[in-house]
Amino acid sequence: MPDLPRSQALRLGRRLPRRTRRRSQVERRSASDRVAVRLSGEITSANAARIGQHLQGELRSRPAILEVNLQDVTCLGSDGGVLFFMALHTAREHRTRIIVTHVRSQVRQILSQLGLERVLDMYEGEGPPPRRDDV
Prior knowledge:
CATH topology: Transcription Regulator spoIIAA
Strand content: 25-35%
Largest sheet: 5 strands, mixed
Oligomer: single chain
Number of strands: 5
Number of helices: 4
Number of domains: 1
CATH architecture: 2-Layer Sandwich
Distance between the termini: 64 Å
């Protein structure tokens, strides 16, 4: 069968090769009372609950600060943003401050649409240096 332009292939119902999706990963780093979690890959409805449960597990240790690094997040769906609501609920119970660092513009836009920019401390870079009362 000859190669057709993408638009014709879609009209004819041919399956197009699906681009490979990078699975989301979670990496943990801890220093005193500050826990840093680095997320990577795509955060969608398929994995948001699992990642949200992981963040809640980190919050059970009751750190003063939970830093969520989004530098390697390639895509955040609006369903994926729900994990931050789950984390915020647990953080408030444990009086933990959540800081989100390395927020790309696409990710910031989704978090803003969900209203999370009002309740999360978001930074494009490293974030603020630790305060004396945080560590």
